[in-house]
Automatic annotation (TrEMBL):
Amino acid composition bias (Basic residues), ranges on this chain: 75-89
SUPFAM superfamilies (alphabetical): lambda repressor-like DNA-binding domains (SSF47413)
Disordered: annotated span: 66-89
Domain of life of the source: Bacteria
Residue span(s) of domain HTH cro/C1-type: 15-58
PROSITE patterns named in the record: HTH_CROC1
Source taxonomy: Bacteria, Bacillati, Actinomycetota, Actinomycetes, Kitasatosporales
Organism: Streptomyces doudnae
Protein name per Swiss-Prot or TrEMBL: Helix-turn-helix transcriptional regulator
Length: 89
């Protein structure tokens, strides 16, 4: 997120509250990103659009998601087994 903020500063956006106003995102959302939370795609899109950047470049600048594998691939959760349907006798 530091690199995102640096890009924002180069466009005259100095603080997270300023970035919130310019993107239409809430300050708490941006503070969560600054603290390492994973952004949603619409959030990344708004930031990228404001900064004139590609979504991919913003995603690469946001901190790694906790639980990511060593190769950078996201950790895959196992889905719970499907429940059996009860049949009446």
């Amino acid at each position: 997120m530091d690199k995102v903020l640096k890009r924002a500063r180069s466009k005259g956006i100095e603080t997270i509250p300023d970035l919130a106003v310019q993107t239409g995102l809430s300050e708490p959302t941006l503070y969560r990103l600054a603290n390492g939370n994973e952004p949603s795609l619409p959030t990344v899109w708004r930031i990228a659009r404001l900064l004139g950047a590609r979504i991919e470049s913003i995603l690469l600048e946001v901190p790694t998601v906790p639980g990511a594998e060593a190769d950078g691939a996201p950790h895959q959760r196992k889905r719970p087994a499907a429940r059996r349907q009860r049949t009446s006798a």
